[in-house]
């Protein structure tokens, strides 16, 4: 069925918990196929249409300036959407796990949520940005900040098996490559200093990644649930976050320098399996037993 939103100003922000969501249309979420937001509305609220599993058609007004976090997340039937020219802000996970195949960001977009708004969109193959946009750009369908310092989104539907991160990029953003099922090899330049939360999480075919010699921080879940068999941690790395390298194919860990600050669960159970092969790994497992040199 169709739900039509009328009125002026910002929409309410809602919530979505294991008990369900608190939108007025909560009991109909599985019946909603079309959402029409009429002129005058200026935002889509937090979790407004989250988990509308059969939603396949959305009409947004030209007055809209913001789509809040999780506005249309977990909408697998939503394959296309026309974002209004005046849209200023797209919140974290706004379209995550949706069925979007492509998206175009207009010249007005000035803020994108910390967590990739298009994370785990398995069908997405195309991201374009208006040339006039002063804040963001797309190169070969990959979304970056305009200064090319942060890679924000490598689409989940890109089918190429290898990718070279452009020189000058300093960070791979939160959930940047999240759950791309095709990528096997990633090459990064020495300018990369940070792999942010969940950067490559769920890239299950990823089996080769050369970490930048300038890398300083590997945040939680950064390379979690990939197919990495061997990883070399550069001497430049200062910290490794929780569950960063829970990779079930992992066979070799090499530390080029001193063991960095490392979360006790950074490698999950993989260290116990590999501890005998390297003195530094033994040192880590010993530290885990007594709690020294590690983040809790």
Overall mean confidence score, pLDDT: 91
Helix run count: 2
Number of strands: 25
Distance between the termini: 49 Å
Low-confidence stretches: 286-296
* Rg computed from alpha carbons, rounded to a whole number of angstroms: 21 Å
Mind summarizing the main beta sheet?
A: 9 strands, mixed
Shape category: elongated
Derived from helix and strand composition plus strand pairing, the structural class reads mainly beta
Proportion in helices: under 10%
Oligomer: single chain
Could you spell the SSE succession in H and E letters?
Answer: EEEEEEEEEEEEEEEEEEEEEEEEHHE
Short description:
The chain has 296 residues and is mostly beta strands.
Task: List the SSEs and their pairings.
Elements: E1 2-5, E2 16-17, E3 20-21, E4 34-37, E5 43-44, E6 57-59, E7 66-67, E8 89-90, E9 102-105, E10 111-112, E11 126-129, E12 136-139, E13 142-145, E14 150-153, E15 162-164, E16 171-172, E17 185-187, E18 194-195, E19 208-210, E20 217-218, E21 230-233, E22 239-240, E23 252-255, E24 261-263, H1 270-274, H2 279-290, E25 294-295
Parallel strand pairs: 1-4, 4-6, 5-7, 7-8, 8-10, 9-11, 14-16, 15-17, 16-18, 17-19, 18-20, 20-22, 21-23, 22-24, 24-25
Antiparallel strand pairs: 2-3, 12-13, 13-14
């Amino acid at each position: 069925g169709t739900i039509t939103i009328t009125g002026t100003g910002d929409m309410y922000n809602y919530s979505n918990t294991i008990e369900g969501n608190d939108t007025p249309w909560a009991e109909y979420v599985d019946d909603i196929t079309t959402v029409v937001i009429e002129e005058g509305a200026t935002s889509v609220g937090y979790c407004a249409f989250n988990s509308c599993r059969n939603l396949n058609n959305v009409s947004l007004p030209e007055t809209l300036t913001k789509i809040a976090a999780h506005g249309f997340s977990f909408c697998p039937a939503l394959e296309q959407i026309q974002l209004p020219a005046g849209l200023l802000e797209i919140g974290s996970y706004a379209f995550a796990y949706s069925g979007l195949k492509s998206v175009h960001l207009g010249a007005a977009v000035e803020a994108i949520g910390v967590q990739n708004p298009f994370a785990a969109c398995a069908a997405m193959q195309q991201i374009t940005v208006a040339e006039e946009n002063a804040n963001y750009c797309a190169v070969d369908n990959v979304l970056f900040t305009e200064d090319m310092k942060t890679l924000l989104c490598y689409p989940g539907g890109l089918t190429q098996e290898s990718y070279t991160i452009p020189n000058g990029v300093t960070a791979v953003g939160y959930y940047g490559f999240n759950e791309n099922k095709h990528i096997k090899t990633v090459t990064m330049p020495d300018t990369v200093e940070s792999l942010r939360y969940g950067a490559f999480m769920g890239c299950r075919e990823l089996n080769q990644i050369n970490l930048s010699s300038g890398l300083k921080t590997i945040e939680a879940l950064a390379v979690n649930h990939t197919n990495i068999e061997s990883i070399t941690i550069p001497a430049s790395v200062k910290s490794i976050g929780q569950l960063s390298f829970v990779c079930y194919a992992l066979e070799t860990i090499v530390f080029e320098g001193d063991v960095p600050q490392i979360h006790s669960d950074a490698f999950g159970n993989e260290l116990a399996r590999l501890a005998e092969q390297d003195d530094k790994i033994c040192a880590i497992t010993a530290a885990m037993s007594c709690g020294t040199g590690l983040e809790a």
